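re: ur question from yesterday

yeah so i grabbed the chain u mentioned. its 618 aa long if i counted rite. heres the sequnce exactly as i have it in my notes:
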Amino acid sequence: MSHRDAPLRLALVVLIGVTGCAGTQRRDAPPPQARGGVLDARQWSPERDGPLELAGEWRFHWQELLAGDDAARCFAAAEEADFAEVPHTWDELEREGAALPAEGFATYCLTVLLAERDEPLMIYVPRLRTASDLWVDGIRVAQSGRVGTSRGSSLPRRIDHVSAIAAAPRIELMLRVSNYHFRSGGPHKAIRIGAPIDLEPLPDGRSAALTAFFVGAFVILGVYHVLMHPLRRRGIGPVAFGGLCLVMALYQLTRENNLFATVFPGVSWQSEIRLEYTMFALSVTLAAVFLRATYPREVSLALVRACALLPGLFVVATWALPLLLVTDQVLLAFQLCFAALGAWGVLSIARAARAGRPGASWFFVGGGLWLLTGLVDGLLLRVVPNAPRLLPFGFMALVVAQAVLLAIVQARSATRTKELSTSLLSLASEKLALEQVAYRDPLTGLDNRRRLDLDVERLREEAEPAWGSSTPDAVAPAAPAPAASTGTRPVSLLYLDVDDFKEYNDRYGHEVGDQVLIEIARILREESRPYDLSVRLGGDEFALLLVGVDEVGARAQARRLEQRLAEPIDCGGRPLRVSASIGTATVPGDQVDIGEMLRRADASMYRRKGERKKAKSA
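ran it thru and got these structure tokens back, copy pasting raw so excuse formatting
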């Protein structure tokens, strides 16, 4: 498979993972089932077979909440009792040719026969719809809310319970349930018994741990994306996705009632349901905003408006209407609308994928899985109450798609940064080359007259001038001149002219003459400070600009250079003696004028040349 098939691989992995999570434990033999209100589990061993679901036919007393002396009727002879399958809601039952209503109350009874054992057992009561309590041998061992015979006396709550019970050969269970707030009532999940090691902590602890993992992961991702906005200013997309992650974390928390009740113990069950529906609706709006920000060409503004209007109406209905009406009728209508909006969004992402938008194929798979798992959670659970909750797995696929998009964006940004860095280095090299041409003498590598004029002008403008090194591999100054006010420091100019240079060209050729000039430039660099400016003015004329050197120091520097130049120099393996005359000019720092200094230094140089000729003749 090519890298283009990577999103399909993701979809396959998620579906396999979801299928694995929805699987049930294997048993070598089918577990015993209750018949006629009696469950014969004498062949069952909790250590060998694991927890046992108390499923099958329970005695059923509709519109009765048995207690006290009336509880004996719960275990009446089989021919005098009605029966109901557990786990099932009672609105699936029929009495006198009509289905039972969702609102009402009932008592379920079951006798469990067990083998002799000394160790105690644990019993697990899942959260039921909507208020319930469980009695074992006349002792109440679990209570979720408060059962009642009317809406006012019934207080719903959904909490799991685990209690220890004696391992007697015969156990009588009485489960009382009332519902006035949900679309269906009754024990839609099975009660289980087992060894303490299997049921303590809660047998759904694996599910709670998975929920805690999803909640923690979504919160971390949400905070990361929300903080990304002020730090990187990448538009509304990261904020919308961060908000979506936080909303999904709270939504998942409301689905796991034990965790929600632990974190928010004072919130009523009705508020939990309404908050769950609100988070579900808000996730649709945030998802549309995020997709619009990510793929503005393909995701239309009409989709965003629809995903804001319909969820808004649903939230208002959720908090304004009776909860039973919301769960029974309103929820289904809006779920169908949300499914249509989700399909619209997935088709928009498909168009983005066809257009080659970055990460669109991943979002197509992730968004499709999220939509599919949302449909399963929203619609299938109405028919199969015990169906697994798959929505967090689908949303995790969307998170993976976002991670892939971030990776693509960061990789492209890194590539673009590298390209820009390469371009900047190239421009810097070109700039340096241009400066070499503009400010350097190509033969000797010294600065030229243009650079001398530029630095003198800078000297007049700056209080602390920095002079460039005359090294041939750099145009910028290599070291700063000693700090001082320009006006209080003298500035000297040395003007150098090679004596009888034309004779070198005529006698040895221009190549030797060029080598003589190169060697003179080398000596100038060696005999000057790093911040002095060595310049070739043209032909056989050179200049050396000295900052902070007075007239006496300038003349001493000139004599040292004359002595150094009098030494034989190597010109292509041929030692030659060269002589040069150097004139000087010194002015205060605030009176620097390069033209005037050159004229004075040139006159001084000719005087020096005359003195040297007279001395040579003598």
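noticed a couple things. Residues 6 and 264 are 41 Å apart (CA to CA). also The chain has three domains: 3-16+206-413, 42-202, 449-617.
anyway ttyl
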